[in-house]
Amino acid sequence: MSGSPSGPSGDKARLMELLAVSLRAYYADFTEASAAENLTASQGKMLSVLRQGPAAMRVLARSLSCDASNITGIVDRLEKRGLVHREPSPTDRRVKNVVLTPEGERAIDAIRAHMHATMAGLDALDDAERATLHDLLSRTFEAASAAATVQAQA
Question: Which DSSP letter does residue 23 get?
């Protein structure tokens, strides 16, 4: 018997594959756009994470799925370019938070503006479809994101 699996588990498998294909396309677009700003994909990703607010180095390591020593190097390079700065955590002076600077905000805005393939895909949707996609993605990944944040802060 050939063809794609049907039923709830087959539907989930197809959705997971579609998400994987979508993420590969998004990541390729993001990597190219980061390079246009003379940034690595990891540096661009860090700026994107920091757009959500200051974060401790340990939280960044978890968010970017890399070792803390790699985070130090990425932050050092971004700090040297004036895209981020370190400051003591307001709740624990032993912890350093990494904060996006106005120049860092400009860089992440430029990266997003250079993501032509992603923008073209989103432009193919009307306003209602984009709102539905937003709601579905938010609901799908909200629990996973919250769990990862709690785990990273532990």
Answer: H
Query: Could you tell me if 64 and 45 are in contact, meaning their C-beta atoms sit under 8 angstroms apart?
Result: yes
* C-alpha closest to that of 148 among 44, 61, 69, 73: 61
E strands of the chain, at which residues? Answer: 55-56, 84-88, 96-100
Compute the average pLDDT of residues 22-37. Answer: 96
Query: Quick one: pLDDT at residue 140?
Result: 86
Tell me how many degrees the CA angle 34-35-39 measures, rounded to the nearest 5: 70
Let me know: does 107 contact 35? Beta carbons within 8 Å: no
Residues 6+ apart with CB under 8 A from 119: none
pLDDT at 18 over 60: yes
**Nearest-angstrom CA–CA distance, 102 and 2:** 55
Q: Measure CA of the first residue to CA of the last residue in the chain; give whole Å.
A: 48
Distance CA 15, CA 23 (A): 12
